[in-house]
Structures are given as structure tokens and as C-alpha cells.
């Protein structure tokens, strides 16, 4: 049993950077305090830092994409950084909102859900809520997206062509219901490990499908590096594979507490050489709809132990042999670029190819 992920006889606690208690899930006050103490950005780097802190808690903020819209033009290439009144108002509105952030709760079975949709010229937002046992409306999930010109016009045209009559009444009944059973498959799992030795540096990645099929990979890194860099190389290679596979859900496990807690925001990245890998991992994680990171001690992590020395084949669990491709690779994170209107903190659409040579 992992003592960091288990607790008994407590009414609340911190889990993956959030506060979990009987009322629901809320933001850790220390993360809010960091944002509240941040001064107004003076350049693009400081603005990106501010947006980076918001990216971790975006699901708690109503219409974040619309609120941050004034910042978009400042992130365009070859645009002078001019912090005007609209930017100042957006900055202050976010801070004011975080003075009393919402508490998100889990949905209650057999109770109707309420969906609120708000469409603006350049953004769209939604709120999913539900009434609790005390007939009090509670927030379940916030979602917001920035619309590109084509998407925004298409949405505006659709709403104009399909107005909802004011006399319409909402109904909880749906005719011709034919769905009797919905099977929810468990998420994919990914284990990764990196090992740096005098003889060379290697990484291994193991995917486990919902049907418990094993997809192992082993990589020989073409550059010498530290153990921490090897761990980052392993997760970067695994995330790129997951993005190419278009996995909707992924649980990620590793025995490197440093890498996991840096990516969840619990640890700061203090070493300069790790920062590009940390940033690129965040970009790849944003391309997976539901991804979670979990620290697993090496003593309880059989797959990671096996992957540390993986070569041409791998035997796990019931000792079934399986062939493993050996590839030579080295991930070069993309340079920091000026964001455009399409590059938003909630959504990353860029997918970089992997160059590999098979042995």
C-alpha cells in the first residue's frame, strides 16, 4: 500500500495538488496565493508564466478562455507588448474570481444534469451542474474554448438559424430511448522508466490496454545524460506514442517522484537542463483529453523494474514473452515560440512527428 496515496480516518486531504474533502474538490490555497501575489506582467515571459499557473486550475474557472481573450494579441509574433486597460481588467477579474473559487463536486446518480452554454464572438464556455440533496445547485465541471474565425462564425450562424422559442419547456423525458447499458472501459495505463549507466542510457515504456494487452517499447538514447533526464526522455517518448494512438484516457505511472511531482506542480523545476523537457511534457499531456500522473515506489512497480533493463523481449505478469522493437532516439523539445490566437492554455493542437531509426 502506498502511504502517499492512502489515508484512513480523515475528512480531507491534499491529492495531486488539490484539496479533497466531503464537500468536493477545490484548489489548493497555496496555488491561489501564488497567483494573487503576481504583479501585472511586464513582458511576454511574465504573461506566459501567469497563464501557466492558470492552466493548472482552468477547470475551476468559468469561461477562462473568454476572460483571457485580451492576452491573445500580446502573444502574437512581432507584436509589441502593450498592457492596456482591457488586459488590466482581465487580470484583475481573474484575481477577484479566485478570492472565492468554486468547489467542484461529483455527480449524483439518477439526478438530472444542467448544462449552461455561453457563446461570445471569440470564445465559448459551458458549465455542467446539478442540484444536491438540499436542492442547492452545485458546479460539476467548467469548460471553455477560444474560437478561431471559422469556428466562431459557424457557431454564430447555427445559433441564428436555430433559435429556441421562449415558450419551450424543458423536459426530463426522452422519447424512443434505446440505450439500456453503457459500458465504460477502464483507461489505458502507461509505465515508463529511464536508466543512465556508464555503458549507455536506455528507456522503456509499457502500455497496458483496457483488455490487459501489453505494448512494450525500448529505446536506446543517442546522448549521454543524467538519470532525471533519462526519466524525462522516457515519458516524452511514451506521451508521443500516446498522442499518435489518440488515447482518450491514460493513467501514467513512474517511480521517479521528482518527474511526477514536477509535472503535477508539487515540485518546482530548479535545474535549467530539465526545464525544456518539463515544458514539452506539459504540451503533450495537454493533447490527451484525460491524463493522470501517479508516483509508484520501485518496490511496488514491477513493470518499471522490468523496463529499466528491457532489450529484445519482455516477460511480465504471467511470464508471457513478447517481441520488443529497439529504437535509437533523442527527443529535442521545440523552442519556446510566440503563441498565436490558436495556441490557448486549455488546448494544444500541435502534434510533432517522431524521427526514429530501427535497429
Automatic annotation (TrEMBL):
Residues 184-317 form the RNase H type-1 domain. Residues 337-359 are annotated as: Disordered. One of its GO terms (molecular function) is nucleic acid binding. InterPro entries: DNA/RNA_pol_sf, Rev_trsase/Diguanyl_cyclase, RNaseH_domain, RNaseH_sf, RT_RNaseH_2. It comes from the Eukaryota. Residues 339-350 have a biased composition (Acidic residues). Transmembrane segments: none annotated. PANTHER family: RIBONUCLEASE H (PTHR48475), RNASE H TYPE-1 DOMAIN-CONTAINING PROTEIN (PTHR48475:SF1). This is RNase H type-1 domain-containing protein. It comes from Aristolochia fimbriata.
Amino acid at each position: 500500500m502506498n502511504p502517499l496515496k492512502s489515508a484512513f480516518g480523515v475528512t480531507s486531504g491534499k491529492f495531486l495538488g488539490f484539496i479533497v474533502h466531503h464537500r468536493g474538490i477545490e484548489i489548493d490555497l497555496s496555488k491561489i496565493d501564488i497567483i494573487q501575489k503576481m504583479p501585472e506582467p511586464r513582458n511576454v515571459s511574465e504573461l506566459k508564466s501567469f497563464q501557466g499557473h492558470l492552466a493548472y486550475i482552468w477547470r475551476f474557472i468559468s469561461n477562462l478562455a473568454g476572460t483571457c481573450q485580451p492576452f491573445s494579441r500580446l502573444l502574437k509574433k512581432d507584436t509589441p507588448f502593450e498592457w492596456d486597460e482591457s488586459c488590466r481588467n482581465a487580470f484583475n477579474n481573474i484575481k477577484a474570481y479566485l478570492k472565492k473559487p468554486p468547489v467542484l463536486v461529483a455527480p449524483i446518480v439518477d439526478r438530472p444534469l444542467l448544462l449552461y452554454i455561453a457563446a461570445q464572438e471569440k470564445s465559448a464556455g459551458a458549465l455542467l451542474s446539478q442540484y444536491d440533496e438540499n436542492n442547492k445547485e452545485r458546479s460539476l465541471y467548467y469548460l471553455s474554448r477560444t474560437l478561431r474565425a471559422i469556428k466562431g462564425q459557424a457557431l454564430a450562424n447555427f445559433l441564428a438559424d436555430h433559435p429556441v422559442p421562449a415558450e419551450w419547456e424543458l423536459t426530463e423525458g426522452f422519447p424512443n430511448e434505446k440505450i439500456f447499458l453503457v459500458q465504460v472501459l477502464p483507461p489505458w495505463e502507461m509505465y515508463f522508466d529511464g536508466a543512465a549507466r556508464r555503458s549507455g542510457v536506455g528507456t522503456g515504456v509499457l502500455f497496458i490496454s483496457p483488455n490487459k494487452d501489453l505494448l512494450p517499447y525500448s529505446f536506446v538514447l543517442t546522448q549521454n545524460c543524467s538519470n532525471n533526464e533519462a526519466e524525462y526522455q522516457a515519458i516524452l517518448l511514451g506521451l508521443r506514442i500516446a498522442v499518435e494512438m489518440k488515447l482518450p484516457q491514460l493513467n501514467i505511472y513512474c517511480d521517479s517522484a521528482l518527474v511526477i511531482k514536477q509535472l503535477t506542480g508539487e515540485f518546482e523545476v530548479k535545474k535549467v537542463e530539465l526545464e525544456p523537457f518539463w515544458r514539452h511534457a506539459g504540451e503533450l499531456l495537454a493533447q490527451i483529453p484525460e491524463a493522470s500522473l501517479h508516483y509508484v515506489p520501485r518496490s511496488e512497480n514491477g513493470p518499471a523494474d522490468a523496463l529499466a533493463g528491457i532489450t529484445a523481449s519482455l516477460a511480465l505478469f504471467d511470464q508471457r514473452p513478447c517481441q520488443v522493437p529497439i529504437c535509437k532516439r533523442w527527443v529535442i523539445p521545440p523552442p519556446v515560440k510566440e503563441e498565436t490566437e490558436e495556441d490557448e492554455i486549455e488546448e494544444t493542437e500541435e502534434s510533432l512527428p517522431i524521427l526514429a531509426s530501427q535497429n
